[in-house]
Amino acid sequence: MSNPSSKPRWQSLDSDLARISRVEYANAHVARPMLAPGIAFAFIALAGLTAAVVFGRADGGLIVVAAAGFGAYMAINIGANDVANNMGPAVGANALTMTGAIVIAAIAESAGALLAGGDVVSTISKGIIDPASVHDSTVFIWAMMAALISSAMWVNLATWVGAPVSTTHSVVGGVMGAGIAAAGLSAVSWTTMSAIAASWIISPVLGGIIAAGFLALINAKIQYQDDKIAAARRWVPILVAVMAGAFTTYLAVKGLNKLVKVELEVALLFGLATGFLTWLVTVPWVHRRSEGLENRTKSLKTLFGLPLIISATFLSFAHGANDVANAVGPLAAIVHTAQFGDFAAQVAIPTWVMVIGALGISFGLFLFGPKLIRMVGSQITKLNPMRAFCVALSAAITVILASWLGLPVSSTHIAVGAVFGVGFYREWHAERRRKNANHQRLPERRQAQEEKKRRKLVRRSHFMTIVAAWIITVPATAVLSAAIFWTLTAFL
Protein backbone atom coordinates (compact mmCIF):
# COMPACT_ATOMS: atom_id res chain seq x y z
CA MET A 1 0.00 0.00 0.00
CA SER A 2 1.34 3.42 -0.95
CA ASN A 3 2.40 5.84 1.68
CA PRO A 4 0.11 8.91 1.68
CA SER A 5 2.93 11.10 2.89
CA SER A 6 4.90 10.48 -0.34
CA LYS A 7 2.43 12.44 -2.46
CA PRO A 8 3.26 15.84 -0.99
CA ARG A 9 6.97 15.10 -1.38
CA TRP A 10 6.48 14.34 -5.11
CA GLN A 11 4.42 17.51 -5.51
CA SER A 12 7.15 19.51 -3.80
CA LEU A 13 9.78 17.96 -6.07
CA ASP A 14 7.72 18.76 -9.17
CA SER A 15 7.34 22.32 -7.95
CA ASP A 16 11.09 22.64 -7.37
CA LEU A 17 11.86 21.23 -10.82
CA ALA A 18 9.40 23.68 -12.39
CA ARG A 19 11.11 26.57 -10.63
CA ILE A 20 14.52 25.35 -11.81
CA SER A 21 13.19 25.12 -15.38
CA ARG A 22 11.87 28.66 -15.17
CA VAL A 23 15.22 29.90 -13.87
CA GLU A 24 17.06 28.14 -16.70
CA TYR A 25 14.63 29.62 -19.23
CA ALA A 26 15.12 33.08 -17.74
CA ASN A 27 18.90 32.71 -17.87
CA ALA A 28 18.73 31.62 -21.52
CA HIS A 29 16.44 34.55 -22.32
CA VAL A 30 18.83 37.01 -20.67
CA ALA A 31 21.95 35.45 -22.21
CA ARG A 32 20.59 35.39 -25.79
CA PRO A 33 21.15 39.13 -26.45
CA MET A 34 24.74 38.74 -25.28
CA LEU A 35 25.54 35.97 -27.76
CA ALA A 36 26.10 38.22 -30.79
CA PRO A 37 28.33 40.75 -28.97
CA GLY A 38 30.28 37.84 -27.46
CA ILE A 39 30.99 36.35 -30.89
CA ALA A 40 31.94 39.80 -32.21
CA PHE A 41 34.40 40.35 -29.35
CA ALA A 42 35.90 36.91 -29.98
CA PHE A 43 36.48 37.79 -33.64
CA ILE A 44 38.05 41.13 -32.67
CA ALA A 45 40.39 39.31 -30.27
CA LEU A 46 41.26 36.79 -32.97
CA ALA A 47 42.12 39.63 -35.38
CA GLY A 48 44.45 41.13 -32.77
CA LEU A 49 46.04 37.72 -32.17
CA THR A 50 46.61 37.32 -35.92
CA ALA A 51 48.40 40.66 -36.02
CA ALA A 52 50.52 39.64 -33.04
CA VAL A 53 51.56 36.42 -34.80
CA VAL A 54 52.37 38.26 -38.04
CA PHE A 55 54.39 41.03 -36.40
CA GLY A 56 55.81 39.16 -33.43
CA ARG A 57 57.90 41.48 -31.26
CA ALA A 58 58.75 43.92 -34.01
CA ASP A 59 58.69 47.65 -33.29
CA GLY A 60 55.17 48.96 -33.39
CA GLY A 61 53.72 45.50 -32.92
CA LEU A 62 51.38 46.52 -30.09
CA ILE A 63 50.01 49.39 -32.16
CA VAL A 64 49.34 47.06 -35.08
CA VAL A 65 47.59 44.58 -32.76
CA ALA A 66 45.31 47.33 -31.47
CA ALA A 67 44.69 48.61 -35.01
CA ALA A 68 43.81 45.09 -36.19
CA GLY A 69 41.23 44.84 -33.42
CA PHE A 70 39.67 48.15 -34.36
CA GLY A 71 39.82 47.17 -38.04
CA ALA A 72 37.85 44.02 -37.23
CA TYR A 73 35.39 46.16 -35.26
CA MET A 74 35.01 48.43 -38.30
CA ALA A 75 34.45 45.48 -40.64
CA ILE A 76 31.76 44.06 -38.36
CA ASN A 77 29.95 47.39 -38.43
CA ILE A 78 30.15 47.50 -42.23
CA GLY A 79 28.45 44.12 -42.36
CA ALA A 80 25.80 45.26 -39.91
CA ASN A 81 25.04 48.52 -41.74
CA ASP A 82 26.27 48.83 -45.31
CA VAL A 83 25.28 45.44 -46.73
CA ALA A 84 21.61 46.07 -45.95
CA ASN A 85 21.45 48.45 -48.89
CA ASN A 86 22.10 45.61 -51.33
CA MET A 87 19.95 42.88 -49.80
CA GLY A 88 17.20 44.89 -48.11
CA PRO A 89 15.04 45.42 -51.23
CA ALA A 90 15.16 41.72 -52.18
CA VAL A 91 14.12 40.69 -48.66
CA GLY A 92 11.43 43.37 -48.47
CA ALA A 93 10.02 42.16 -51.78
CA ASN A 94 9.95 38.55 -50.48
CA ALA A 95 12.23 37.44 -53.30
CA LEU A 96 14.68 36.19 -50.65
CA THR A 97 14.29 35.02 -47.09
CA MET A 98 16.38 36.75 -44.44
CA THR A 99 18.56 33.64 -44.09
CA GLY A 100 19.03 33.31 -47.84
CA ALA A 101 19.93 36.99 -48.18
CA ILE A 102 22.50 36.79 -45.38
CA VAL A 103 24.16 33.68 -46.83
CA ILE A 104 24.30 35.08 -50.39
CA ALA A 105 25.54 38.48 -49.21
CA ALA A 106 28.23 36.97 -46.99
CA ILE A 107 29.57 34.81 -49.83
CA ALA A 108 29.36 37.59 -52.45
CA GLU A 109 30.88 40.28 -50.19
CA SER A 110 33.77 38.02 -49.15
CA ALA A 111 34.38 36.91 -52.74
CA GLY A 112 34.37 40.50 -53.94
CA ALA A 113 36.83 41.58 -51.26
CA LEU A 114 39.24 38.67 -51.61
CA LEU A 115 39.08 38.08 -55.38
CA ALA A 116 38.56 41.55 -56.79
CA GLY A 117 39.38 43.92 -53.93
CA GLY A 118 41.93 46.62 -54.61
CA ASP A 119 45.53 45.59 -54.06
CA VAL A 120 46.40 49.18 -53.12
CA VAL A 121 44.38 51.69 -51.15
CA SER A 122 44.57 55.40 -50.58
CA THR A 123 45.69 55.91 -47.01
CA ILE A 124 44.37 59.46 -46.95
CA SER A 125 40.98 58.62 -48.49
CA LYS A 126 41.16 59.96 -52.02
CA GLY A 127 43.40 62.95 -51.38
CA ILE A 128 41.62 64.56 -48.43
CA ILE A 129 44.81 65.10 -46.43
CA ASP A 130 48.15 66.10 -47.94
CA PRO A 131 50.74 63.55 -46.70
CA ALA A 132 53.41 66.23 -46.79
CA SER A 133 51.56 68.09 -44.03
CA VAL A 134 52.19 65.24 -41.59
CA HIS A 135 55.93 65.10 -40.94
CA ASP A 136 56.14 62.45 -38.21
CA SER A 137 55.28 58.79 -38.74
CA THR A 138 54.07 58.39 -35.16
CA VAL A 139 51.66 61.28 -35.59
CA PHE A 140 50.44 59.71 -38.84
CA ILE A 141 49.79 56.38 -37.10
CA TRP A 142 47.76 58.03 -34.35
CA ALA A 143 45.81 60.00 -36.94
CA MET A 144 44.89 56.85 -38.85
CA MET A 145 44.06 55.07 -35.57
CA ALA A 146 41.72 57.92 -34.61
CA ALA A 147 40.08 57.82 -38.03
CA LEU A 148 39.57 54.05 -37.75
CA ILE A 149 38.09 54.21 -34.25
CA SER A 150 35.82 57.18 -34.93
CA SER A 151 34.40 55.82 -38.19
CA ALA A 152 33.72 52.42 -36.61
CA MET A 153 32.00 53.99 -33.61
CA TRP A 154 29.84 56.19 -35.84
CA VAL A 155 28.69 53.32 -38.06
CA ASN A 156 27.94 51.32 -34.89
CA LEU A 157 25.82 54.17 -33.53
CA ALA A 158 24.00 54.58 -36.85
CA THR A 159 23.19 50.86 -36.89
CA TRP A 160 21.83 51.06 -33.36
CA VAL A 161 19.65 54.05 -34.31
CA GLY A 162 18.52 52.28 -37.49
CA ALA A 163 20.05 54.60 -40.09
CA PRO A 164 21.99 53.23 -43.10
CA VAL A 165 25.01 55.52 -43.57
CA SER A 166 27.95 55.65 -45.94
CA THR A 167 31.00 53.77 -44.67
CA THR A 168 33.22 55.69 -47.06
CA HIS A 169 31.90 59.03 -45.81
CA SER A 170 32.49 57.88 -42.23
CA VAL A 171 36.13 57.09 -43.04
CA VAL A 172 36.44 60.38 -44.92
CA GLY A 173 35.18 62.32 -41.91
CA GLY A 174 37.48 60.42 -39.57
CA VAL A 175 40.55 61.06 -41.71
CA MET A 176 39.65 64.73 -42.12
CA GLY A 177 39.16 65.28 -38.38
CA ALA A 178 42.38 63.52 -37.44
CA GLY A 179 44.26 65.36 -40.17
CA ILE A 180 43.03 68.74 -38.94
CA ALA A 181 43.94 67.82 -35.37
CA ALA A 182 47.40 66.68 -36.47
CA ALA A 183 48.34 69.35 -39.01
CA GLY A 184 45.72 72.10 -39.02
CA LEU A 185 43.03 73.21 -41.46
CA SER A 186 45.54 73.78 -44.25
CA ALA A 187 46.19 70.03 -44.47
CA VAL A 188 42.70 69.39 -45.87
CA SER A 189 41.94 69.49 -49.58
CA TRP A 190 38.73 71.51 -49.36
CA THR A 191 38.08 71.07 -53.10
CA THR A 192 37.87 67.32 -52.58
CA MET A 193 35.71 67.76 -49.50
CA SER A 194 33.35 70.04 -51.46
CA ALA A 195 32.92 67.35 -54.10
CA ILE A 196 32.18 64.77 -51.40
CA ALA A 197 29.66 67.11 -49.78
CA ALA A 198 27.96 67.56 -53.15
CA SER A 199 27.57 63.79 -53.38
CA TRP A 200 25.31 63.90 -50.33
CA ILE A 201 22.69 65.44 -52.62
CA ILE A 202 23.72 63.99 -55.99
CA SER A 203 23.76 60.32 -54.94
CA PRO A 204 20.26 59.91 -53.48
CA VAL A 205 18.60 62.29 -55.95
CA LEU A 206 20.08 60.50 -58.97
CA GLY A 207 19.24 57.10 -57.52
CA GLY A 208 15.69 58.16 -56.69
CA ILE A 209 14.98 59.69 -60.07
CA ILE A 210 16.28 56.71 -62.03
CA ALA A 211 14.42 54.18 -59.84
CA ALA A 212 11.19 56.18 -60.14
CA GLY A 213 11.65 56.40 -63.90
CA PHE A 214 11.96 52.63 -64.28
CA LEU A 215 8.94 52.06 -62.04
CA ALA A 216 6.92 54.48 -64.17
CA LEU A 217 8.01 52.56 -67.26
CA ILE A 218 6.95 49.23 -65.74
CA ASN A 219 3.59 50.67 -64.70
CA ALA A 220 2.88 52.18 -68.11
CA LYS A 221 4.17 49.38 -70.33
CA ILE A 222 3.25 46.30 -68.28
CA GLN A 223 1.17 46.74 -65.14
CA TYR A 224 -1.58 48.97 -66.60
CA GLN A 225 -1.88 47.17 -69.92
CA ASP A 226 -5.05 45.20 -70.68
CA ASP A 227 -3.01 42.06 -71.46
CA LYS A 228 -0.36 42.17 -68.74
CA ILE A 229 1.18 38.81 -69.62
CA ALA A 230 1.72 39.71 -73.28
CA ALA A 231 3.20 43.06 -72.24
CA ALA A 232 5.49 41.32 -69.76
CA ARG A 233 6.72 38.91 -72.43
CA ARG A 234 7.72 41.89 -74.52
CA TRP A 235 9.20 44.18 -71.86
CA VAL A 236 10.66 41.95 -69.12
CA PRO A 237 13.44 40.57 -71.40
CA ILE A 238 14.35 44.16 -72.31
CA LEU A 239 14.48 45.23 -68.65
CA VAL A 240 16.54 42.18 -67.66
CA ALA A 241 18.90 42.87 -70.59
CA VAL A 242 19.33 46.47 -69.39
CA MET A 243 20.05 45.11 -65.92
CA ALA A 244 22.66 42.65 -67.23
CA GLY A 245 24.34 45.31 -69.34
CA ALA A 246 24.33 47.79 -66.47
CA PHE A 247 25.82 45.33 -64.00
CA THR A 248 28.48 44.20 -66.47
CA THR A 249 29.53 47.82 -66.89
CA TYR A 250 29.22 48.45 -63.16
CA LEU A 251 31.46 45.52 -62.24
CA ALA A 252 34.00 46.43 -64.93
CA VAL A 253 34.19 50.03 -63.74
CA LYS A 254 33.93 49.63 -59.96
CA GLY A 255 34.35 46.00 -58.98
CA LEU A 256 37.18 44.45 -60.98
CA ASN A 257 39.98 47.00 -60.63
CA LYS A 258 42.35 44.45 -59.13
CA LEU A 259 41.83 41.88 -61.87
CA VAL A 260 41.81 44.14 -64.91
CA LYS A 261 41.81 47.86 -65.70
CA VAL A 262 38.90 48.75 -67.95
CA GLU A 263 38.09 52.19 -69.34
CA LEU A 264 34.47 53.32 -69.13
CA GLU A 265 34.01 53.25 -72.92
CA VAL A 266 35.24 49.65 -73.14
CA ALA A 267 33.08 48.69 -70.16
CA LEU A 268 30.03 50.13 -71.93
CA LEU A 269 30.75 48.01 -75.01
CA PHE A 270 31.01 44.90 -72.82
CA GLY A 271 27.74 45.94 -71.21
CA LEU A 272 25.97 46.28 -74.55
CA ALA A 273 27.18 42.86 -75.68
CA THR A 274 26.15 41.24 -72.40
CA GLY A 275 22.76 42.94 -72.55
CA PHE A 276 22.09 41.63 -76.06
CA LEU A 277 23.07 38.07 -75.15
CA THR A 278 20.94 38.26 -72.01
CA TRP A 279 17.94 39.41 -74.06
CA LEU A 280 18.33 36.41 -76.38
CA VAL A 281 18.35 34.04 -73.39
CA THR A 282 15.61 35.79 -71.43
CA VAL A 283 12.96 35.87 -74.16
CA PRO A 284 12.31 32.08 -74.12
CA TRP A 285 12.71 31.95 -70.32
CA VAL A 286 10.00 34.58 -69.82
CA HIS A 287 7.69 32.77 -72.25
CA ARG A 288 8.07 29.49 -70.33
CA ARG A 289 7.78 31.22 -66.96
CA SER A 290 4.61 33.12 -67.94
CA GLU A 291 2.68 30.15 -69.28
CA GLY A 292 -0.56 29.68 -67.34
CA LEU A 293 -0.20 32.91 -65.34
CA GLU A 294 -3.35 34.86 -64.59
CA ASN A 295 -3.73 38.30 -66.16
CA ARG A 296 -3.15 40.29 -62.98
CA THR A 297 -0.39 42.29 -61.32
CA LYS A 298 0.38 39.63 -58.72
CA SER A 299 1.38 37.21 -61.47
CA LEU A 300 4.00 39.63 -62.78
CA LYS A 301 6.00 39.40 -59.55
CA THR A 302 7.17 35.88 -60.38
CA LEU A 303 8.98 37.19 -63.47
CA PHE A 304 11.12 39.66 -61.50
CA GLY A 305 12.14 37.43 -58.59
CA LEU A 306 15.16 35.68 -60.12
CA PRO A 307 16.59 38.82 -61.82
CA LEU A 308 16.24 40.63 -58.50
CA ILE A 309 18.21 37.94 -56.64
CA ILE A 310 20.96 38.01 -59.28
CA SER A 311 21.18 41.80 -59.17
CA ALA A 312 21.42 41.81 -55.36
CA THR A 313 24.25 39.27 -55.58
CA PHE A 314 26.15 41.41 -58.08
CA LEU A 315 25.66 44.49 -55.91
CA SER A 316 27.11 42.66 -52.91
CA PHE A 317 30.10 41.40 -54.93
CA ALA A 318 30.85 44.90 -56.22
CA HIS A 319 30.44 46.35 -52.73
CA GLY A 320 32.90 43.85 -51.30
CA ALA A 321 35.39 44.58 -54.08
CA ASN A 322 35.09 48.35 -53.85
CA ASP A 323 34.20 49.41 -50.31
CA VAL A 324 36.08 46.94 -48.13
CA ALA A 325 39.41 48.38 -49.26
CA ASN A 326 38.21 51.85 -48.27
CA ALA A 327 37.19 50.57 -44.86
CA VAL A 328 40.52 48.87 -44.12
CA GLY A 329 42.51 51.76 -45.60
CA PRO A 330 43.46 53.27 -42.22
CA LEU A 331 44.47 49.82 -40.93
CA ALA A 332 46.60 49.19 -44.03
CA ALA A 333 48.23 52.60 -43.53
CA ILE A 334 49.07 51.83 -39.91
CA VAL A 335 50.55 48.43 -40.83
CA HIS A 336 52.67 49.94 -43.61
CA THR A 337 53.97 52.80 -41.47
CA ALA A 338 54.74 50.55 -38.50
CA GLN A 339 56.56 48.07 -40.73
CA PHE A 340 58.58 50.43 -42.94
CA GLY A 341 58.76 53.59 -40.82
CA ASP A 342 57.38 55.86 -43.55
CA PHE A 343 53.99 56.71 -44.97
CA ALA A 344 52.73 57.27 -48.49
CA ALA A 345 49.58 58.28 -50.32
CA GLN A 346 48.99 54.69 -51.41
CA VAL A 347 50.05 51.41 -49.82
CA ALA A 348 49.56 47.71 -50.55
CA ILE A 349 46.90 45.90 -48.55
CA PRO A 350 48.35 42.79 -46.84
CA THR A 351 46.34 39.65 -47.41
CA TRP A 352 45.64 39.16 -43.72
CA VAL A 353 44.22 42.70 -43.49
CA MET A 354 41.85 42.03 -46.39
CA VAL A 355 40.82 38.72 -44.78
CA ILE A 356 39.94 40.58 -41.58
CA GLY A 357 37.81 42.96 -43.63
CA ALA A 358 36.04 40.19 -45.56
CA LEU A 359 35.38 37.94 -42.55
CA GLY A 360 34.40 40.88 -40.37
CA ILE A 361 31.73 41.89 -42.86
CA SER A 362 30.35 38.35 -42.84
CA PHE A 363 30.26 38.22 -39.04
CA GLY A 364 28.63 41.64 -38.83
CA LEU A 365 26.04 40.64 -41.40
CA PHE A 366 25.16 37.38 -39.63
CA LEU A 367 25.10 38.87 -36.13
CA PHE A 368 23.64 42.35 -36.59
CA GLY A 369 22.57 42.74 -40.23
CA PRO A 370 18.86 41.80 -40.08
CA LYS A 371 17.88 45.05 -38.35
CA LEU A 372 19.04 47.31 -41.20
CA ILE A 373 17.95 44.81 -43.86
CA ARG A 374 14.38 45.08 -42.53
CA MET A 375 14.68 48.85 -42.35
CA VAL A 376 15.74 49.27 -45.98
CA GLY A 377 13.55 46.47 -47.29
CA SER A 378 10.20 47.08 -45.64
CA GLN A 379 10.10 49.91 -43.11
CA ILE A 380 10.80 52.88 -45.40
CA THR A 381 8.18 51.94 -47.98
CA LYS A 382 6.49 48.75 -49.16
CA LEU A 383 8.44 46.95 -51.87
CA ASN A 384 7.49 44.20 -54.28
CA PRO A 385 9.83 42.45 -56.78
CA MET A 386 9.15 45.06 -59.49
CA ARG A 387 9.91 48.02 -57.22
CA ALA A 388 12.95 46.30 -55.71
CA PHE A 389 14.19 45.48 -59.23
CA CYS A 390 14.02 49.21 -60.03
CA VAL A 391 16.06 49.98 -56.91
CA ALA A 392 18.83 47.52 -57.84
CA LEU A 393 18.91 48.65 -61.46
CA SER A 394 19.07 52.29 -60.39
CA ALA A 395 22.07 51.59 -58.13
CA ALA A 396 24.10 50.15 -61.01
CA ILE A 397 23.14 52.83 -63.56
CA THR A 398 23.72 55.70 -61.14
CA VAL A 399 27.27 54.54 -60.38
CA ILE A 400 27.98 54.30 -64.12
CA LEU A 401 26.64 57.82 -64.74
CA ALA A 402 28.61 59.19 -61.81
CA SER A 403 31.82 57.57 -63.08
CA TRP A 404 31.19 59.04 -66.53
CA LEU A 405 30.60 62.51 -65.05
CA GLY A 406 33.48 62.18 -62.60
CA LEU A 407 31.22 62.65 -59.57
CA PRO A 408 32.03 61.08 -56.18
CA VAL A 409 28.94 59.18 -55.07
CA SER A 410 28.02 56.83 -52.24
CA SER A 411 26.54 53.41 -53.01
CA THR A 412 24.65 53.60 -49.70
CA HIS A 413 23.07 56.94 -50.58
CA ILE A 414 22.22 55.70 -54.08
CA ALA A 415 20.46 52.53 -52.91
CA VAL A 416 18.50 54.16 -50.10
CA GLY A 417 17.74 57.17 -52.32
CA ALA A 418 16.33 54.74 -54.88
CA VAL A 419 14.04 53.26 -52.22
CA PHE A 420 12.88 56.77 -51.34
CA GLY A 421 12.39 57.55 -55.04
CA VAL A 422 10.18 54.49 -55.52
CA GLY A 423 8.13 55.39 -52.44
CA PHE A 424 7.66 59.05 -53.32
CA TYR A 425 6.77 58.13 -56.90
CA ARG A 426 4.08 55.80 -55.56
CA GLU A 427 2.71 58.63 -53.41
CA TRP A 428 2.65 61.01 -56.38
CA HIS A 429 1.10 58.42 -58.67
CA ALA A 430 -1.56 57.43 -56.12
CA GLU A 431 -2.49 61.09 -55.64
CA ARG A 432 -2.70 61.59 -59.38
CA ARG A 433 -4.98 58.59 -59.81
CA ARG A 434 -7.23 59.83 -57.01
CA LYS A 435 -7.58 63.23 -58.66
CA ASN A 436 -8.41 61.66 -62.01
CA ALA A 437 -10.97 59.28 -60.50
CA ASN A 438 -14.69 59.89 -60.56
CA HIS A 439 -15.57 62.25 -57.68
CA GLN A 440 -19.22 61.16 -57.55
CA ARG A 441 -18.82 58.56 -54.82
CA LEU A 442 -20.90 57.54 -51.87
CA PRO A 443 -20.06 59.40 -48.62
CA GLU A 444 -18.54 56.21 -47.16
CA ARG A 445 -16.26 55.79 -50.15
CA ARG A 446 -15.28 59.46 -50.05
CA GLN A 447 -14.37 59.06 -46.39
CA ALA A 448 -12.29 55.96 -47.17
CA GLN A 449 -10.48 57.83 -49.93
CA GLU A 450 -9.70 60.72 -47.59
CA GLU A 451 -8.34 58.29 -45.00
CA LYS A 452 -6.18 56.64 -47.68
CA LYS A 453 -4.99 60.04 -48.82
CA ARG A 454 -3.74 60.88 -45.34
CA ARG A 455 -1.67 57.70 -45.19
CA LYS A 456 1.80 58.26 -46.57
CA LEU A 457 3.57 55.54 -48.53
CA VAL A 458 6.99 56.69 -47.26
CA ARG A 459 7.43 56.76 -43.51
CA ARG A 460 8.51 60.31 -42.74
CA SER A 461 10.13 59.44 -39.41
CA HIS A 462 12.59 57.06 -41.10
CA PHE A 463 13.14 59.53 -43.92
CA MET A 464 14.10 62.33 -41.52
CA THR A 465 16.30 60.06 -39.37
CA ILE A 466 18.26 58.75 -42.35
CA VAL A 467 18.71 62.15 -44.02
CA ALA A 468 19.85 63.68 -40.73
CA ALA A 469 22.38 60.87 -40.27
CA TRP A 470 23.71 61.44 -43.81
CA ILE A 471 24.14 65.17 -43.24
CA ILE A 472 26.02 64.87 -39.96
CA THR A 473 28.14 61.80 -40.79
CA VAL A 474 31.26 63.65 -41.94
CA PRO A 475 31.11 66.46 -39.32
CA ALA A 476 30.34 64.01 -36.50
CA THR A 477 33.12 61.57 -37.38
CA ALA A 478 35.53 64.49 -37.90
CA VAL A 479 34.87 65.91 -34.43
CA LEU A 480 35.00 62.47 -32.83
CA SER A 481 38.23 61.62 -34.66
CA ALA A 482 39.89 64.86 -33.59
CA ALA A 483 38.93 64.23 -29.96
CA ILE A 484 40.28 60.66 -30.12
CA PHE A 485 43.52 61.85 -31.75
CA TRP A 486 44.13 64.44 -29.03
CA THR A 487 43.39 61.81 -26.37
CA LEU A 488 45.78 59.29 -27.91
CA THR A 489 48.61 61.77 -28.29
CA ALA A 490 48.08 63.18 -24.80
CA PHE A 491 48.11 59.91 -22.86
CA LEU A 492 50.15 57.52 -25.03
Automatic annotation (TrEMBL):
InterPro entries noted in UniProt: Phos_transporter
One Pfam assignment: PHO4
Official protein name in the record: Phosphate transporter
UniProt keyword Isomerase, yes or no: no
Residue ranges crossing the lipid bilayer per the database entry: 34-55, 62-80, 139-159, 171-191, 197-220, 232-252, 264-282, 303-321, 349-368, 388-405, 411-428, 463-488
Membrane topology type: Multi-pass membrane protein
UniProtKB keywords: Membrane, Phosphate transport, Transmembrane, Transmembrane helix, Transport
GO CC annotation, single: membrane
Compartment(s) of residence: Membrane
Family, as annotated: Belongs to the inorganic phosphate transporter (PiT) (TC 2.A.20) family.
GO BP annotations listed: phosphate ion transmembrane transport
GO terms of molecular function: phosphate transmembrane transporter activity
